Amino acid sequence: MSKPLIGISTYLERAKWGVWEMPAALLPAGYPRLVRAAGGLAAMLPPDAPSSAADVVARVDGLVVAGGADVEPVRYGAEPHPRTGPPARERDAWELALIEAALASGTPLLGICRGMQLLNVALGGTLVQHLDGHTGGVGVLGEHAVKPVPGTRYASIVPEEDGVPTYHHQAADRLGEGLVVSAYAADGTPEAVELPGEHWVLGVQWHPEMGEDLRVMEALVAAAAAGLPAHREPQLQT
């Protein structure tokens, strides 16, 4: 019996290994490691034409949109803030198409950091382009508490206030259509958003792949497993 297949978006960067230096499809190892620890099979999804997104999503049981570069402000009708990073236009287009395909098909979806922000933008929301206090410094993870909102999906997964590994300088501002905030930081920053209802859609602003808490990923894997046909009933780790 098979485990659910969780696709994780990757991105193109110039990288060096051995004698080679060339463009590579990259993903921090913490993402597939977290999927495996949570009982799923990880599949790295290299960037492709947005027109391929629906076919790609149809072949996975769940989708993770990974963290990374700032979303280009034009995507939500704003001018760039001086602290907003350089655009990653091809990545924006590819991952927006993945999100739209997952929403259309009902594929369980988890957005992590940038992935949460892109989920908000995909549904018509906007972003705060710069805030302080949510990193530990340049290239250093911070940690702060997030408080769940009672009655939300996230609160059913992590019912207590909990410390999380965090590294972001942007956040959701106006929420996209249908989204609700399901966790806040102490300063009022939305730290998780979700779509209420039948389909499993959650975004978290922190980086669970950099921590030890498996619960959010385990919930995604369980939702993906629940959608498998009977002949692919998964055998989850305990």
What is the compact description of this entry?
By secondary structure, the protein is α/β, with parallel strands linked by helices. It is built from six helices and 13 strands. α3 (89-105) packs across α4 (114-122).
Could you explain the architecture of this structure?
By secondary structure, the protein is α/β, with parallel strands linked by helices. The chain has 6 helices and 13 strands. The strands form 3 sheets. Strands 4-1-5-6-13-12-11-8-9 form a 9-stranded mixed β-sheet, with helices on both faces. It has a two-stranded antiparallel ribbon with strand order 2-3. Strands 7-10 form a two-stranded antiparallel sheet. A hairpin with a 4-residue loop joins strand 11 and strand 12. It is globular. The relative contact order is 0.19. The mean pLDDT is 92.
- Chain-averaged pLDDT: 92
Q: Strand tally, please?
A: 13
| Straight-line distance between termini | 15 Å
Report the major sheet. Answer: 9 strands, mixed
* Radius of gyration based on Cα positions: 17 Å
Strand order of the largest sheet: 4-1-5-6-13-12-11-8-9
Strand content: 25-35%
- What is the number of helical segments per DSSP (H or I, 4+ residues)? 6
> What percentage of residues falls in helices of 4 or more residues?
10-25%
SSE string: EEEHEHEHEHEEHEEEEEH
Note the overall shape: globular
- The secondary-structure class comes to alpha/beta
Q: Low-confidence parts, pLDDT < 50 over ≥5 residues?
A: none
